[in-house]
Input
Amino acid sequence: MERTYVMIKPDGVQRNLVGEIISRFEKKGFKIAGLKMLQLDRAMAEKHYKEHIGKPFFEALAAYITSGPVVAMVLEGKDVVSTARAMNGATNPANSGAGTIRGDYAIEVGRNVIHGSDSVESAAREIGIYFTEKELCEYQMVLDRWIYE
Ligand code: IDP
Ligand code: MG
Output
C-alpha cells in the first residue's frame, strides 16, 4: 500500500481544524500509520522545503511553518499520494474547489492550512524527515474489506 506524508500546518492547529482534517482522511478510508505533534525549527523547515530555498516566498514560508506546532501524519492507502493532494486542494486556496480542505478552510497561499507530499518519492523523503520506522504502525483494520474490493 502507498504511503504519504500529510501535515496540518500551524494555522490549522491554531484554528482548531485538527479533528476536522484528520476526520476527513479517516472517513475517506485511509489508514493512519503515524501521528504526532511537533514544532519545526529552521533546520527542519529548510529540510522539508529544500526545493523552495532561495525563492521569494521562502523566508515567509519558513517563518510560517516554524511559528507554532504542527500535526504530522503518515496516511496509507491505494493511490493515497495523489488522492490526499486532491483532498487538500490547489496550493493557492483561491483556486481550490469547494469540498477541498484548502477550498473550505483557507483564503491565502501563505496560510493554506495543510501540506501533502506531491509524489511517491517526495512522500518517502518527507516521511523519513519526521518519522522513524518504529513510529509507523502496521495493523489490520476490520473495515478494510468494506473499503477495498
Ligand atoms: P504545495 O504545498 O501545494 O505542494 P508548493 O509549491 O510546494 O505547494 O509550496 C509550498 C508551500 O509554500 C505552499 O503550500 C505555501 O504554503 C507556500 N507558498 C507557495 N507559493 C507561495 C507564494 O507564492 N507565496 C507565499 N507562499 C507560498
Ligand atoms: Mg510542495
Observations:
- The first strand starts at residue 2 and ends at 8.
- The mean pLDDT is 98.
